[in-house]
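#lab-general

N.A. 3:47 PM
ok so I finally got the sequence cleaned up, no stray characters, all 633 residues accounted for. can someone with queue access submit it? mine expired

B.Y. 3:52 PM
send it over

N.A. 3:53 PM
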Amino acid sequence: MSRKKNKIKKVTKKITKDNKILNYIVFFSVMLVLHFSFVVLFNSNLKGYNILNRTWGFDHISYFPSIYLYIFYIISLIVIIPFTNNYIKNILHNIINVKLSHIVGFLKKNKTVLFLTISLFFTALFYFFKIKYHFLGDMDIRINQTLKEEYIKDEYLTMLLLNKFHLLLNNFFGFSGYQTFVTQSVISGFVFVFVSLLIADVIVDEFNSKISVFLFYISFGTLLLFFGYVEIYSIPAMSVLIYLYAAILSLKRDKSIVFAFVALLVSIMFHLMSIGLLPSFLLLVYLKNTNKFKFLNKIKLSHVIIAVVLSLPIIYFLALKLSLAAVIPFTKVEDTRVLTLFSLKHLWEFTNNQLLASGVGILLLIIIIYKAFKEKIKPDSTILFLSVAAIYIMLITFIVNKMRGSGDWDIVAFPSIIFNLLVVSFYVNILSKKYSKSKISYILVVAIAFNFLNASSWIAVNATDMSIKKIANMLETDPAYYYQVKLPAETNLALSYRANGLDMESIKYYKKAYKKHYKDPRSHFNYAMMLIKIKDEKKAAQILDNLIDIMPLYPMAYEPLLTIYEKNKQYDKMYTSINKMYNAYVKNPKPLQLRMNKNFIISCFTYLYKVENSKGNKQKTEKLQQILISLGK
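B.Y. 4:20 PM
back already:
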């Protein structure tokens, strides 16, 4: 016991003497306290939009039971403590280099086998933990667009590919549009993981560092794009990474720049947003040719930085003038849903999304920018290339996030694909020359652990019924009008929950839709049908009766209502309802003829004929007789 205490004292003493590692301990501790404060202490229950009650933010763990929150923070805290951090690192080191030495030796010689095995493992995870509710993306819109060949110029090649892919899967396996989208998402994830491994292999030489790079890079929230995500962004995300790999290969292994150029063109065709990668390719050309063309040697790093900074406003105004996308205006416009460029709401939404997508990555990015300028650290060609790529993609996503804020998490998450690679490259290749291995390991272990906790909870929320609260909040308060074009948000929610067998949640939102959209006959009908399902026929009959008073030509209301009355021998009410149906039919028979079973109409009017005939109502029986003859009786 005393030996352990002495060891803890030695490690603690060593760290407290080292200001650099102590700074990181403080940084991670403050980060964790702020995260805890935001999620636990400031998570409000206010209705509508507010910066604390986030729908798409890094506070997604607040949807878990309280015990999970405690586990989340306890594990994070344990990893931040230097002694336990070092202990974890040593365990992993021993497992890899001692117990698995033979396997590791084999895999080092057979990288393709290793990379394919890991990629297939992640592919299985992507499928088995796929998103359960598909309000995250524009599911119906995207599926209809691709199946009907309504291609959008911004993402033409992606939608064309999805259409052809669906035709193939539909012809051979009978796949629906939904199944096609899930499949392409998972396959894109396989490619993404495989290319991530290739990048980790190229970017560093030491085997343990390769593992660190891969784990850091594969532990961020953007990975959700590959968990059966029903949208088009998984393919563009995959293509961006392939371009990065081609460029890094060109810089690190002196491979041809042609591969990078082709990868860039394909990426732009998959999504026009990737045009933001063009400046990084121009820089790649410059970096590859400084020795061939002497005049390029006169260009200094400061010149590149100045050129980048000056180009940012130029790109913004060009995009605005040419209407290239839904560019955010500087000043307010008539539509109150539209954000302004430097409004606090937009800045917060963008930051919030980056924290969700990258975890600690965005915070470490700020640190390395500060260190690079303060300590005048000269970046290598890879860091310079990734920096320019990250800056312009960040700009693109910053200026086109017009209405949704962090609700458009998928498109706004794209910068994390680049700057997370930039961050881990900076630490393993640049700061490793200034810090000791143990310091770099400490930073990466904390970052990887927190990112895995952050990303896995984000994935788990969306793979389970825990997402109900999040989705409900999004659809009831989200400014995106197109979610409510066909149906009210509450009805959308109710239908989704009913389809997944969650009857009580379904009834809750059918009732909300009924109260909020009282003039919409669908709200009455859907709520009543759900009440019938749970055997509350009395209340269902009241709602259906109200519905035929409001809209007597709504055909679907009559059959369930009359079935309830007949079952319960409420013949007076049954007569009244059929009489309402008759009066509506006399005024305009087409709606009822088109949507109701002819035999049901004949049955109802035959019953009414007998009742009216017994009353001696000659005029009405004659009219009913004419209607029955016209119906073919």
